[in-house]
Amino acid sequence: MSPILQGILTIFIGVGGCVGYFVASNWLLDKVIFPPKPGDRGRNVNRATLVRPWLFLFPAMFALGLYLVYPVIGSFIRSLYNRSGEDFIGLGNYTAMFAEEGFRTALLNNMLWVLFVPASATFFGLLVAQLTDKLRWGNIAKSIIFMPMAISFVGASLIWKFVYANDPSVGIINAVRDGFGLDPVDVLQIPFWNNFFIMFILVWIQTGFAMVILSAALRGIPEETVEAAIIDGANPFQVFFKIKIPQIMGTIVVVWTTITILTLKVFDIVYAMTGGNFDTEILPSYMMDYMFRDDGRATAVAFVIMIIVLPVMIWNIRQARKEMN
Amino acid sequence: MDNIAGTKSSLSFVTNASVVGLVLLWLIPTIGLLVSSFRDREQISASGWWTSMFPVEQAFRVQPEPEGVTQDGIFYTFSGNLFTTGEGSLAGAGSVDGFGIASREPDGAAPGETIARYIINVREADGTVDDERIVVKFANGGAPVFPAEDDDGNAILAGTAVLDRSLSVAANGDFTWVQEGEISRAPSIYMTAETPPDFGMDNYTTIMQSDNMGRAFINTLTVTIPATIIPILIAAFAAYALAWMDFAGRGFLIAMVVGLLVVPLQLALVPLLTLHNQIGIGQSFLGIWLAHTGFGLPLAIYLLRNYMVGLPRDIIESAKVDGATDFQVFTKIVLPLSFPALASFAIFQFLWTWNDLLVAKVFLPSNSESWVMTVKIADDLLGSRGGDWGILAAAAFISIAVPLVVFFAMQKYLVRGLMAGSVK
Q1: Do A68 and B286 touch (CB under 8 A)?
Q2: Domain presence at residue A29
Q3: Is the dihedral of CA A27, A31, A34, A38 positive or negative?
Q4: pLDDT at residue number B6
Q5: How many domains does chain A have?
Q6: Which contiguous run of DSSP H or E holds residue B129?
């Protein structure tokens, strides 16, 4: 059956199924299991109310449990086995990994990414948010800077390939170098610095995200605090650094951590630009290398990524609980 | 009231200038891609897209078929126009800057001159007479002037020159070719010429037809739409339960959802693929729909719950007092009111699944029939068409066209979704 037909059928079955489930289960609950019979009415309604949340939650919990919770455990267990999944080798995958040069390079590069990308994106986002705040054409400027978020990482990589290309007639960077009489250089092969050229692509994409949120945060700062500072004689820079930033620090942190999480997941850009060569490998693309070859090793890498992300997760959960109380 | 600080004109100028600079930095690469996607492959290699509006100078080799050959004694002649031979990127017009009959000197002669190869006799150092070829050029209608010695220093014997072949080309491409002996095959004529900028949809048609991008586009659509609609449904119910229903363990579940937002996708790939294989789904569209639903749920529940919590309490309370069950409150009140949040998440999820590469590579079959656009670009085009910038640009633009349209049309909702819960 053609995939389109399959897709349409799935939409009908999926939507119909979900709706059917919810309607049917609630109807069952209200009319069959706990019908408001006279005499029992109050008690039955109460019982129905007790059960109902779980009806609402069940499909979501099932999907979440299967697709996100089980893998955490499943991946860890799988990483304790060898390539074919039959022999238990304990931490063998992990020790082999850490001993391997490729893994260490990937780990180091990932650290670079985690340090550079969120900081730059947040910085640029804040910069643009502040600069465009009072401009007449601010909204258009913001739209343009936000636009890369809609593009796939692969598409963005292609766009920047046109900038980084080795050929002076294609790549802007080398065209400028050519204009100054310099030789063309393949920026993706410069050791160490090539990472930053690739990282910049993610910064290009994520700055819009930071900008949108920080712009809203800046707008939320009470005007009185700014005016009081100006009356006291502060110049714009002092107002920015001493008044505005401290008040939106909470949002800045949220933006920073969100971009950090995303940075740890993204493998598309490295995959499309260099395929991991020239020492640009990062953990997700390193894992893709092993993905279909050695599942034990691949899951071990995935688990390392998980561990790196763990502090952020714990912090987020803490924040969420604080908010609810 | 306006921010008083910052109304100095110099600061305002700097602000404007820096924003312009940033916007350009963001926009220029994308424009470069768009312009390049309409250009011909050779023009892209010859000049940057920033000069693409101007004529491009390139070197060509043209092999015009001998038609209308006339014979004059032992010499055979034919004429034509180099730009209308129908070859490659010669679009029928242009202006010749230089031409030649050997590939190492494609611009040996200028328009208005004739370049010719003669066979001459030379006296070698040891006294023997040998024949050689020599290339000379002279003005049209004029006569060749031979040097006294050839390149090796041997004396050229005057009066022994016999024409082998000659070519004269005018600036508009009209040429005349004279050859001693019958013309058995098309001669190779070299020239450097300026051709006008050639924009066209060729790259797009090539990629849709022969490269099967159209199929990939449909595949992407097939993956994205169910993967957007189904999570919304499931998440809406769950979000309502977590927002407005009271039960033990609610706090724990909310915390769990927040925690799951952070779990890296990579962790789930291997175990789930194994699971899919075991229950018989394997790598298929059904698999990827389920996967995207599962992966998209934490964000969906988080966004929707945040929004629902903000709904006015009185409406819901009074409905409950009137005897409505939670199910009725949800379907009749909360769901319709939550439309902005539903729209926000729908756009997020649409963009995310449309642009996704990783999940598609893992959960879809690896045969070319099932590729989505991201996989096709990353795995197929970058490899097999790596040097063809025009095709790459067209492919990239096809894949980002739909998200861009969705983005610009629905920006408001996207922004609102981003802000839900992020601004403290």
Answers
A1: no
A2: yes
A3: positive
A4: 47
A5: 2
A6: strand B129-139
Query: What integer pLDDT is reported at residue B1 of this predicted model?
Result: 39
Task: Calculate how close chain A gets to B242, using CA atoms only, in Å.
Answer: 8
A122 & A44 share domain: no
Q: Are residues A21 and A151 in the same domain?
A: no
* A120 and A167 fall within a common domain: yes
Q: A42, A57, A72: which is the final residue of a domain?
A: A57
B chain contacts of residue A320, beta-carbon cutoff 8 Å: 254-255, 258
A184 and A315 housed in the same domain: yes
Do B403 and A151 lie within an 8 Å CB cutoff?
yes
* Interchain CB distance below 8 Å, A154 and B403: no
Q: How far apart are CA B156 and CA B354, in angstroms?
A: 74
Minimum distance, in Å, between the CA of residue B262 and any CA atom of chain A: 6
Full domain range(s) for residue A315: 94-324
The predicted complex's ipTM stands at: 0.80
- For residue A71, the distance in angstroms to the closest alpha carbon of chain B comes to 5
> Which range (A135-149, B69-83, B149-163) has the least confidence?
B149-163
Of B225, B272, B330, the CB nearest to A71: B272
Shortest distance between the Cα of B6 and any Cα of chain A, in A, equals: 6
Q: Is residue B39 helix, strand or coil? A: strand
In the Cβ-directed half-sphere of B115, how many Cα atoms lie within 13 Å? 19
The answer to whether residue A75 is domain-embedded is: no
Q: Which of A67, A135, A144 sits opposite B295 (nearest CB)?
A: A67
For B34, which DSSP code? H
pLDDT digits (tens, 9 = 90+) for A96-137: 888 888 888 888 888 889 899 999 999 999 888 888 887 788
Considering the domain architecture, whether residues A153 and A290 belong to the same structural domain is answered as yes
Q: Could you confirm whether domain B204-419 is CATH 1.10.3720.10?
A: yes
For chain B, the structural domain boundaries read 56-197, 204-419
Contacts of A154 in chain B (CB under 8 A): 355, 357, 374, 377-378, 396, 399
Q: Please name the residues in contact with B179: beta carbons below 8 A apart, sequence gap of 6 or more.
A: B75, B76, B77, B164, B165, B166, B187
Q: Which amino acid is at B215?
A: R
A280: how many CB neighbours lie within 10 A of its CB?
24
Closest CA to B57 of B196, B181, B183, B261: B196
Q: Confirm or reject contact between A164 and chain B (CB < 8 A).
A: no
One domain for residues A189 and A282: yes
Q: What is the pLDDT of residue A325?
A: 66
